[in-house]
Amino acid sequence: MKKEDKEFFRSEKEFLAFEFKSKARIIDDKMVEVIAPDGEVFSVLASIGMYTNEETRYYQLHLIEYVFDKNFSDDKELMTQNIWKDLFLNGVSFMGMSSGDRQGERTRIGNKIRQIRKDKKIEAKDLAKLANIDAANLSRIEQGKYSVGLDILSKLAFVLGYHIDIVPNQK
């Protein structure tokens, strides 16, 4: 753990006793599953399951939970970049991680917003201004890189002349 992070916890014992919102568990020798605070599931390719020492496995899993909590964000692109960096800096031996189990939905919703906006011939900066959101966030939403909340999604839908509804999945 980095020096400034260690100062937050008075001891390793206190760190290990702390309950993080993210939950990590070993799937097999090379895979760890992490459930982020918002319930999104990420897979992390890390050889933690190969450690024979139970204390080492537990410590490494706890480090992963700590890093996910510390970097949790609706901006999933920024979040995953920061997690990569912090896992490395905290000495977790990992090789990669998934973009989360909701990436497909983020991409589908972002594409739909972009399509409606273009069909209505509205510039992205104008839609952002009308919805009172940052233009950079709208860009990330349309690219599926931002986990858009219900309030922002409602604003965008209203400006575009739509409302949010629960509809069945199309197969």
Describe the 3D structure:
With 171 residues, the protein is an alpha+beta fold. It has helices at residues 3-6, 12-17, 54-71, 76-89, 103-119, 124-131, 135-142, 150-159, and strands at 23-28, 31-35, 41-46, 94-97. The chain has a 4-stranded antiparallel beta sheet with strand order 1-2-3-4, covered by helices on one side. Helix 3 runs antiparallel to helix 4 (76-89) and helix 6 packs across helix 7. The model has no long low-confidence stretch (mean pLDDT 90).
Q: How does the SSE layout of this entry go?
A:
Layout: H1 3-6, H2 12-17, E1 23-28, E2 31-35, E3 41-46, H3 54-71, H4 76-89, E4 94-97, H5 103-119, H6 124-131, H7 135-142, H8 150-159
Antiparallel strand pairs: 1-2, 2-3, 3-4
Question: Helix- and strand-based class?
Answer: alpha+beta
Task: Give the C-alpha Rg.
Answer: 19 Å
In whole angstroms, the N-to-C terminal distance is 46 Å
**Total strands:** 4
Helical amount among residues, as a percent range? 40-55%
Residue share in β-strands: 5-15%
Low-confidence segments, given as residue ranges, are none
* Strand arrangement in the largest pleated sheet: 1-2-3-4
Q: Can you count the helices?
A: 8
Rough outline: elongated
H/E order of the elements? HHEEEHHEHHHH
For the biggest sheet, the summary is: 4 strands, antiparallel
Which features characterize this protein?
171 residues; 4-stranded antiparallel β-sheet; 4 strands
Explain briefly what this protein structure is.
The chain has 171 residues and is α+β, with helices and mostly antiparallel strands.
